[in-house]
């Protein structure tokens, strides 16, 4: 009898275990099904808003003005047809065309862009008789993302057909100082290929949490996106000003715990001033290196590590211009308050000019884009590109030569270059050689440019 009861018990336990396993399998299958449905629903919310962008771009880097086609992606973020993309996709574009999900093609106007954050806002030029509205995606909150969260990278890599790749957030706050001083980056292992630039990074709720900007071609799938909470600030500025109207203080900052330099400051509050730029508002206000900034306009600031610096820099960049702001400091352990008046940062890249017959292109010196040249001359023009073969290449002129005088005439602006070039080309038959006085690595040199040969006719 005992053996019979024991047998029944074993059979009951086995049946229970089988039922539990079957239930677990069913629940697992349901969870997998639910996850697939979540991903599909999220994709369907954003995919129709993804656009393929093709631009005709003007370039001067080769020493002559040329036009080339570049392509990228974008995402519609409003019912009126605003498209978010990268600055580097539409940089120097003279024509922008977009292909929508439903195969409609539309021209687009660049509303504004910002090189510092690699973002641009376009406006689709929809025909007046266009039927049907425009699909658009919603910007989500990137601050809630954490490592391991599932995301999708969408765009039109390599061509017209849209694609979606899936991965996770590998790092929710990657510091890339050479790419942007105002923002951290979202690092993802979702595949980002050439052409994905400007496309959306999407969370499982179907919200845009970033704009894909950088992809790594080596070392496995590693891509970087601009967080949506940075984007919110940039879009608001572009809508209002047509660009990001950054303020400039001239403050160079350092975290309290600077691991890379092996420098560690005492305390857990504030941010250290590494140095101030010459002729900057910070230097005029009397702020010095090693000062510790505790508050800006009454708001406490702290940068414990490098990853905290972009938020402080963004706060400085959004300060009101030409209005005094109080900075609470510690200097040698003693509290100090100074007033600083930020100024408009202005252009971060100089204008360019093509110079045919000279066979070179020139560009304005800009303190943010060309700090090494700005050190020697705060205003002026330098050689941006040299055509080869060409007269400039034959003469020995080099890229980054700062132009001081041409044919005995002072050079300070692009207008000076235009006037001098026009005169030299008009008189080339009687005066085929002209003297360029250039500043090269801080040393003055004279170079003779022979214009007797016209390479454009060869």
Brief characterization of the structure:
The chain is of the alpha+beta class and 458 residues long.
Task: Give the structural class.
Answer: alpha+beta
Please give the CATH architecture of the largest domain.
Beta Barrel
Task: Tell me the span between the first and last alpha carbons.
Answer: 110 Å
How would you state the average pLDDT, rounded? 88
Total separate domains: 3
> What is the molecular shape?
globular
Largest sheet data: 7 strands, antiparallel
As a percent range, the share of helical residues equals: 10-25%
Radius of gyration: 29 Å
The CATH topology assignment of the largest domain is Thrombin, subunit H
Q: Please tally the helical runs, counting DSSP H or I stretches of 4 or more residues.
A: 8
Describe the structure.
The chain has 458 residues and is an alpha+beta fold. It has three domains: 1-243, Thrombin, subunit H (Beta Barrel), CATH 2.40.10; 247-344, Pdz3 Domain, CATH 2.30.42.10; 352-457, Pdz3 Domain. It has eight helices and 29 strands. The chain has helices spanning 2-46, 87-90, 228-241, 281-284, 309-317, 371-374, 391-395, 414-426, and strands at residues 50-59, 66-76, 82-85, 93-99, 105-114, 119-124, 150-155, 163-174, 185-188, 200-203, 208-215, 223-227, 247-248, 251-254, 257-258, 263-264, 271-276, 292-296, 299-300, 325-331, 334-340, 343-344, 352-355, 360-364, 381-386, 402-406, 409-410, 433-440, 443-450. The strands form six sheets. Strands 23, 24, 25, 26, 27, 28 and 29 form a seven-stranded antiparallel β-sheet that branches. The relative contact order is 0.09. Mean pLDDT is 88; it is low at 1-6.
């Amino acid at each position: 009898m005992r053996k019979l009861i024991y047998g029944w018990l074993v059979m009951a336990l086995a049946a229970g275990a089988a039922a539990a396993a079957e239930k677990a399998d069913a629940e697992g299958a349901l969870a997998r099904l639910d996850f697939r449905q979540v991903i599909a629903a999220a994709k369907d919310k954003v995919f129709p808003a993804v656009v393929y962008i093709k631009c005709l771009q003007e370039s001067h880097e080769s020493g002559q003005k040329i036009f080339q086609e570049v392509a990228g992606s974008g995402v519609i973020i409003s019912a009126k047809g605003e498209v978010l993309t990268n600055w580097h996709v539409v940089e120097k574009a003279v024509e922008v065309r977009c292909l929508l999900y439903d195969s409609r093609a539309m021209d687009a106007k660049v509303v504004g862009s910002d090189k510092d954050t690699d973002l641009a806002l376009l406006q689709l030029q929809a025909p007046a008789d266009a039927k049907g509205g425009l699909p658009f995606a919603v910007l989500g909150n990137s601050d809630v993302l954490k490592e391991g969260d599932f995301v999708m990278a969408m765009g039109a890599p390599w061509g017209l057909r849209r694609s979606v790749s899936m991965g996770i957030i590998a790092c929710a706050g990657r510091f890339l100082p050479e790419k942007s001083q105002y923002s951290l980056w979202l690092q993802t292992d979702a595949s980002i290929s050439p052409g994905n630039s400007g496309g959306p990074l999407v969370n499982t709720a179907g919200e845009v949490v970033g704009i894909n900007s950088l992809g790594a071609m080596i070392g496995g799938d590693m891509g970087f996106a601009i967080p949506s909470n940075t984007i919110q600030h940039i879009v608001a500025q572009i809508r209002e000003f047509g660009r990001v109207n950054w303020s400039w203080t001239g403050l160079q900052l350092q975290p309290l715990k600077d691991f890379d330099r092996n420098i560690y400051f005492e305390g857990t509050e504030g941010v250290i001033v590494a140095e101030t730029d010459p002729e900057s508002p910070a230097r005029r206000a009397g702020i010095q290196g090693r000062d510790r900034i505790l508050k800006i306009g009454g708001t406490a600031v702290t940068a414990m590590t490098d990853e905290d610096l972009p938020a402080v820099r963004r706060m400085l960049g959004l300060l009101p211009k030409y209005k005094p702001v109080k900075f609470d400091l510690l200097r040698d352990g003693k509290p100090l308050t100074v007033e600083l008046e930020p100024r408009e940062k202005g252009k971060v890249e100089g204008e360019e000019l093509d110079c045919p017959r000279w066979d070179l292109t020139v560009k304005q010196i800009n303190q943010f884009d060309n700090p090494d040249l700005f050190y020697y001359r705060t205003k002026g023009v330098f050689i941006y590109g040299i055509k080869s073969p060409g007269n400039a290449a034959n003469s020995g002129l080099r890229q980054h030569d700062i132009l001081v005088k041409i044919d005995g005439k002072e050079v300070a602006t692009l207008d000076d270059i235009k006037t001098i070039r026009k005169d030299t080309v008009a008189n080339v038959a009687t005066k085929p050689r002209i003297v360029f006085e250039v500043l090269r690595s801080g040393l003055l040199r004279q170079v003779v440019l022979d214009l007797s040969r016209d390479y454009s006719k060869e």
